[in-house]
Amino acid sequence: MNSKDTVTTEVFPLIWTQDVAALSDWAVAVLGLTESWRAPGESGEVEHAELHWFSGKVSINISNGRQMGPSGISLRVDDRNRVDALYRGALNAGADITQGPEESRVAYSFTTTDADGNQWWVNAETGMLDQLRG
Fold first, then answer.
1. Whole-angstrom Cα distance, residue 104 to residue 107?
2. How many degrees, rounded to 5, is the angle at CA 125 between CA 117 and CA 102?
3. What residues form DSSP beta bridges with 34?
4. Which of 28, 82, 113, 123 could form a disulfide with 109 if both were Cys (CB 3.0 to 4.6 A apart)?
């Protein structure tokens, strides 16, 4: 590899759905993600959208009838006050809160489930996982 080559190393979840636009709109309204782009297919229906969560990304894709889910998505934040603020925002947006907020050995967190059954875990880790990651 010469000095002009760059290496991209990213991992981000792919979520599959029949309604990309609705799921993207839900994630923006309920959890405060930012949509960076959406791409329509030949029919005009949105087939792909990319969301940003600080430096992370989530890609939402049309499933076209394939069974590809549901998924679990972890949205890590820096402290429990931010978890509480996101929890209140999700409640105000009518989210289906399936857990929490609660404290565990791993994190202070809550979980909300979207219409496709994907679970979005909003968490401020306690530091226990960092010790394991070493």
1. 5
2. 60
3. 52
4. 123
Nearest to 15 by CA among 75, 77, 57, 55: 57
Q: Which domains does the chain have, with CATH numbers?
A: 14-133 (3.10.180.10)
Those residues whose C-beta lies under 8 Å from the C-beta of residue 41, and which sit 6 or more positions away, are 47, 62
Query: Which pTM was predicted?
Result: 0.83
Token digits for 35? 């949509």
